[in-house]
């Protein structure tokens, strides 16, 4: 990892069973940020799925940033962050937000959602992807439980 960041991907997945009640209540209560296991630069991924009643499952930690999904540019102690929409799922976003600029110690929460038809039955699946990213080493493991310096919300209605 050549940029001093801590990245946390939170991916919440569901089907039509959790679009209505009582599933939607559990889904909407799922966290979009978690306390970090340590304060060192790393990439963490947490999955919350309908089939596991939206309980968090931590995936293996990495030191590599997915350069296809995330563009980072550092200049004069300012970090430019751009989340790329790499999912081949609806809805496509043709007008995307500008990159977010962060000073050291600041963090961004960037959210985007999608739906797609899959499997043998053609039923819809849904995903909310939340990127939590802090520039520089955080001073508190609970940084992503607070209010972000910048928030980009690309969520849209998923029919």
Topology readout:
Elements: E1 5-15, H1 23-28, E2 42-49, E3 56-58, E4 70-75, E5 78-83, E6 100-103, E7 107-118, E8 123-135, E9 150-154
- One letter per element, helices H and strands E, the order comes to EHEEEEEEEE
Mean pLDDT score? 91
Q: Approximately how much beta-strand content do the residues carry?
A: 35-45%
Main β-sheet, in a few words? 6 strands, mixed
> Which bin fits the share of residues in helices?
under 10%
Number of helical runs?
Answer: 1
Describe the global form: globular
Number of domains: 1
Which class of secondary structure composition applies to the elements?
A: mainly beta
Low-confidence stretches: none
Radius of gyration: 16 Å
Strand order within the widest beta sheet: 3-2-1-8-7-9
| N-end to C-end Cα span | 38 Å
Q: Summed up, what is this model?
A:
The chain is mainly beta and 159 residues long.
Describe the structure in your own words.
This protein has about 160 residues and is mainly beta. The protein has one helix spanning about 25-30, and strands at about 5-15, 40-50, 55-60, 70-75, 80-85, 100-105, 105-120, 125-135, 150-155. The protein is built from one helix and nine strands; from the N terminus they run βαββββββββ. The strands form two sheets. The protein has a six-stranded mixed β-sheet with strand order 3-2-1-8-7-9, with no helix packed on it. Strand 7 (about 105-120) and strand 8 (about 125-135) form a beta hairpin. The mean pLDDT is about 90.
């Amino acid at each position: 990892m050549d940029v001093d960041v801590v990245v946390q991907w939170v991916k919440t997945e569901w089907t039509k069973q959790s679009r209505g009640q009582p599933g939607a209540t559990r889904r909407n209560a799922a966290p979009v940020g978690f306390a970090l296991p340590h304060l060192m630069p790393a990439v963490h991924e947490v999955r919350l799925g309908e089939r596991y009643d939206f309980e968090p499952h931590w995936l293996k930690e990495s030191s590599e940033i997915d350069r296809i999904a995330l563009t980072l540019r550092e200049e004069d102690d300012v970090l430019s962050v751009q989340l790329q929409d790499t999912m081949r799922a609806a809805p496509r976003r043709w007008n995307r937000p500008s990159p977010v600029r962060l000073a050291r110690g600041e963090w961004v929460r960037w959210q985007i959602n999608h739906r797609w038809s899959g499997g043998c039955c053609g039923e819809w699946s849904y995903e909310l992807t939340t990127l939590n990213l802090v520039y520089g080493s955080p001073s508190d493991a609970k940084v992503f439980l607070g209010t972000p310096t910048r928030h980009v919300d690309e969520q849209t209605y998923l029919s």
